[in-house]
């Protein structure tokens, strides 16, 4: 009898975490690698947030907090939802976890039984299908094609819903494509959901503030109040305040759901760090003066990377509305041969070739459920980004 549980056979390690590990290994071995794989801003956490953590330590806030998070933090989150999204969530309707990742995990663990289906638009954030599977649910993929900006249509959503559908997962702006749904596009998806009163919506709004060209962010519970009672609105501080290591994410929704998620969390991590929670209060209650500066820097990098990739032979890259990722097509290099005689059969072969030949680390589209593409995170300095894009151009030019 194996010591390992059968649920392990349903999941795989996160491809993006795996790449981070591989890059560290290659760098340690002396290779010159530029990583375009990490899903985190290269900026430092703003000073006033760090200062709040130091002060919390000084006050001795080093003990257990309530499972869903401190009241001060949940009040700050409640105010954020009111101020930025026009949504009323009382502190009781809010749960804080160790990153957005744990909040999503808690939600699936608290709601899915074997055979329950979750509609997951592809390309998707790597962890959604595995988190659904570990909770014994079944992900049902709906392909957001490039011609539609990697977004799903109302007709596709309607066709994917069955009597077993429990959740529809939405993520806008998206990891991995950077694509974001306009208000009208989300409205049309909400209209489909109105026809299916038993289906819930999980909206991952992690990249809410990283949007370009005057794009207006919106979220389902605000667009369609009739969905409020069956929506879990997720957000976090990892991206917006460059706090990936602090592990603070939060969700808001109907009381019954939030209580169930808290129960799951009470039997696992209990809560995220008390110090991180104090820092999060500062992040949410003080002005986010850093944001316009960061977004302007990201936008400049987005324009640079899109332009340089579109000059690479065999690649084509759409300009995304938000986040800090691009999702270029590598259809034009499939079937070509590398200088040492290997045929590029798919996007996995292509990213392996980029890493081996030029030390440019990117993630294959297969990991996100849509090939032949790859994901670039452009949350690195302009100098490094230019270098990386030149490497990719060189690698493409060397194919025959
Ligand atoms: C779409 C999306 N959701 C959730 C997360 C989880 O973020 P964290 O757990 O760091 O808060 C990420 C991180 O990459 C993400 O890209």
Residue share in β-strands? 5-15%
Strand order of the largest sheet: 2-8-7-6-5-3-4
Q: What is the H/E order?
A: HEHHEHEHEHEHEHEEHHHEHEEEH
Spatial gap, N to C terminus:
50 Å
Task: Estimate the mean pLDDT confidence.
Answer: 96
- How many helices? The count is 13
Query: How many runs of DSSP E, i.e. beta strands?
Result: 12
Give the helix level as a range of percent.
Answer: 25-40%
Radius of gyration: 21 Å
Query: Uncertain spans, ≥5 residues at pLDDT below 50?
Result: none
Largest sheet: 7 strands, mixed
The chain-level structural class is alpha/beta
Brief sketch in words of this structure:
This protein is of the alpha/beta class. The protein has helices spanning 15-28, 47-58, 71-85, 99-111, 127-134, 154-160, 183-194, 220-223, 255-266, 274-285, 290-310, 347-358, 382-397; strands spanning 34-35, 94-97, 117-122, 138-143, 165-171, 200-204, 231-236, 249-252, 325-326, 360-361, 363-364, 374-377.
Map the helices and strands.
Elements: H1 15-28, E1 34-35, H2 47-58, H3 71-85, E2 94-97, H4 99-111, E3 117-122, H5 127-134, E4 138-143, H6 154-160, E5 165-171, H7 183-194, E6 200-204, H8 220-223, E7 231-236, E8 249-252, H9 255-266, H10 274-285, H11 290-310, E9 325-326, H12 347-358, E10 360-361, E11 363-364, E12 374-377, H13 382-397
Helix pairs in contact: 2-10, 3-10, 4-5, 4-9, 6-7, 11-13, 12-13
Pyridoxal-5'-phosphate binds at residues 39, 99-101, 125, 171, 175, 204, 206, 236, 238, 244, 249.
């Amino acid at each position: 009898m194996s010591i390992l549980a059968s649920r392990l056979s349903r999941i795989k390690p996160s491809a993006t975490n795996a790449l981070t590990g591989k890059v560290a290994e290659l760098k340690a071995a002396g290779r010159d690698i530029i990583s375009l794989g990490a899903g985190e801003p290269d900026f430092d956490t703003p000073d006033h947030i760090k200062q709040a953590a130091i002060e919390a330590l000084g006050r001795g806030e080093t003990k257990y907090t309530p499972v869903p998070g401190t009241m001060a933090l949940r009040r700050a989150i409640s105010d954020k939802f009111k101020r930025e999204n026009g949504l009323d969530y009382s502190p009781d309707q809010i749960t804080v976890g160790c990153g957005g990742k744990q909040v999503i995990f808690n939600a699936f663990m608290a709601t899915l039984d074997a055979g329950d289906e979750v509609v997951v638009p592809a390309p998707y954030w790597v962890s959604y299908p595995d988190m659904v599977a570990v909770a014994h649910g079944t992900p049902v993929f709906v392909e957001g094609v490039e011609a539609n900006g990697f977004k799903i249509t109302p007709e596709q959503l309607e066709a994917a819903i069955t009597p077993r559908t429990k959740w529809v997962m939405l993520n806008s702006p998206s990891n991995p494509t950077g694509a974001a749904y306009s208000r009208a596009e989300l409205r049309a998806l909400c209209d489909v959901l109105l026809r299916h009163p038993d289906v819930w919506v999980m909206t991952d709004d992690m990249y809410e503030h990283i949007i370009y060209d005057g794009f207006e962010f919106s979220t389902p519970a605000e667009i369609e109040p009739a969905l409020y009672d069956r929506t879990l609105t997720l957000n976090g501080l990892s991206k917006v305040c460059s706090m990936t290591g602090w592990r603070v994410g939060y969700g808001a929704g109907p009381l019954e759901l939030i209580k169930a998620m808290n129960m799951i969390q009470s039997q696992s991590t209990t809560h995220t760090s008390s110090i991180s929670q104090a820092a999060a209060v500062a992040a949410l209650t003080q002005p986010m003066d850093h944001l316009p500066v960061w977004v302007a820097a990201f936008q400049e990098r987005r324009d640079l990377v899109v332009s340089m990739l579109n000059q690479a032979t065999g690649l084509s890259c759409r300009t995304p509305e938000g986040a800090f990722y691009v999702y270029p097509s590598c259809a034009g290099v499939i079937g070509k041969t590398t200088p040492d005689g290997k045929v590029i059969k798919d996007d996995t072969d292509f990213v392996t070739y980029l890493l081996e030949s030029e030390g440019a680390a990117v993630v294959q589209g297969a990991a996100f459920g849509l090939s032949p593409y790859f994901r670039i995170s452009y949350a690195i300095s302009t100098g490094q980004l230019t270098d990386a894009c030149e490497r990719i151009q060189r690698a493409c030019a060397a194919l025959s």
